Automatic annotation (TrEMBL):
Any one GO molecular-function label of the UniProt entry: acylphosphatase activity
Protein name according to UniProt: acylphosphatase
InterPro entries: Acylphosphatase, Acylphosphatase-like_dom, Acylphosphatase-like_dom_sf, Acylphosphatase_CS
Protein's organism: Diaphorina citri
Active site: residue positions: R26, N44
PANTHER family linked to this entry: ACYLPHOSPHATASE, ACYLPHOSPHATASE-RELATED
Superkingdom of the organism of origin: Eukaryota
Ranges of residues in domain Acylphosphatase-like: 11-103
Pfam families, sorted: Acylphosphatase
Biological classification of the source: Eukaryota, Metazoa, Ecdysozoa, Arthropoda, Hexapoda
Amino acid sequence: MESSNRDPITRVDFEIFGKVQRVNFRKYTQSKAKSLNLRGWVKNTSAGTVVGSMEGRSRDVDCMMEWLRTTGSPKSEIVKADFKNAKKLDKHSFSSTAFIIKK
């Protein structure tokens, strides 16, 4: 289902800093994104952060951004969450409806 004018699609990239690796952060991120019907991906970096990209209804992306800033996985310790390249889309840019964990 595509978005209507009252409920635009938003896409945003993110990077999460802190104790976010080896605490199931990617798995919890994937689960939360699926619960919000977001599309995108998440992966660990060699710098010890977690990065990803998400898109969906603007209110759902906002909810996910708040979750990434403040909650994360139960054992994570989020120090900072950066969001960039936010843009409004007429339709989804990810062909898959899934939110995947990249290696």
